[in-house]
Specification:
Helix content: 40-55%
Number of helices: 10
Largest sheet: 5 strands, mixed
Structural class: alpha/beta
Number of strands: 10
Distance between the termini: 25 Å
Strand order of the largest sheet: 3-2-1-4-5
Shape: globular
CATH class of the largest domain: Alpha Beta
Strand content: 15-25%
Radius of gyration: 20 Å
Number of domains: 2
Order of helices and strands: EEEHHEHEHEEEHHHHEHEH
């Protein structure tokens, strides 16, 4: 079964052709980072305009790379939410147009489910499993008993981890997106500032990163007011250790309580080398028999391949073009 999938939830325009839900024939991504860098974050109107410019070209490139025609396809899949409403609408309407023109089923996909199912492109999912989803807008622990069953057992009560990375990145003057640069700097410093590990010992699986962000900003601003110069690498290392300690600790504890057969890491922050290394080490030490799946860097950020992988599981539910489909910016699992 061949699915053409489309992803435009934020600032990447992507299209992919996926075979049987686990084989990538093509996965084309056009990033808008350079356009948003000067603003220090994503500007929704600019993102939408770029999607309009790129969407047709990206779809054509994905089809060409996969050596398929529209007549070869079995379905169209598209991200319906969550995300920026203007950006989502570009992808949804492109998908509806193609599905209508070629009389193909149209499969809507939750963006977060897509991040989880990116791991299926690496290895089969084994249930029950625990997914740690970490991105710019989401930080969640998701328990799955079976395909399509999502139970959120823990989530952030304020800032998402990726959002906190970008905000403290602006404070110490690294380019947008800050997460990548903070991660690189964190490999060069030491944890000398001992920032707070919020909620790490509480009897729940929720997260909070606003206090950590405030502690970081206050430390930098106080030093600036006194004319002191803080080591940026040590700041980055201390911040990253605080984030990773909380994420890893709660993931391992939840995996033990729910007796899962597999742990998977998902979302844009899954590309963070500190988180990848910390989770690998903790799982190996405390959960010897539980396999850990971490997607390759190319599947951590927003991409259409993950949307096609998630759509394959819902293929039986959707048999028509579904022209009533609309963007749902606040969609939840």
């Amino acid at each position: 079964m061949l699915i053409l999938s489309i992803e435009t939830s934020c600032d990447e325009t992507s299209a992919a052709v996926i075979e049987n839900g686990d084989t990538i024939l093509s996965n084309v991504v056009a990033s808008q980072i350079n356009s948003h860098k000067r603003f220090g974050g994503v500007v929704p109107e600019i993102a939408s305009r770029h999607h309009v410019e790129y969407i047709t070209l990206i779809i054509e490139e994905a089809m060409e790379e996969a050596y398929v025609q529209f007549s070869d396809l079995d379905a169209i899949a598209v991200t319906e939410g969550p995300g920026l409403v203007g950006a989502l609408l570009i992808g949804v309407n492109a998908a509806k147009a193609i599905a209508f023109a070629h009389n193909l089923p149209l499969i809507p996909v939750n963006h977060i489910a897509g991040h989880i199912y990116a791991n299926q492109l690496e290895a089969p999912l084994e249930f029950p499993l625990l997914a740690l989803v970490v991105s710019g807008g989401h930080t969640e622990l998701v328990y799955m008993k079976e395909h399509g069953s999502f139970e959120i057992i823990g989530e952030t009560r304020d800032d998402a981890a990726g959002e906190a990375y970008d905000k403290i990145g602006r404070v110490i003057g690294v380019p947008y997106p800050g997460g990548k640069h903070i991660d690189e700097m964190a490999q060069l410093g030491e944890d000398t500032f001992n920032f707070p590990r919020a909620m790490i010992d509480e009897d729940n699986y929720d997260f909070s990163f606003s206090g950590l962000k405030s502690a970081f900003i206050n430390k930098v601003h106080n030093a600036d007011q006194k004319g002191e110069e803080l080591n940026r690498e040590d700041l980055a290392t201390s911040f990253q250790h605080a984030v990773v300690d909380v994420l890893v600790s709660k993931t391992v504890r939840a995996a033990k309580e729910y007796d899962v057969k597999q742990i998977i890491l998902a979302g844009g922050v899954a590309a963070n080398s500190g988180l990848r290394a910390g989770l690998k080490a903790a799982v190996a030490e405390e959960l010897n028999d539980v396999p850990l799946i971490i997607p390759p860097l190319s599947l951590c950020g927003d991409n259409a391949a993950m949307i096609g992988a998630a759509a394959f599981l819902d293929k039986e539910k959707y048999t028509d073009t579904n022209l009533a489909l609309n963007a749902q910016p606040g969609l939840t699992l």
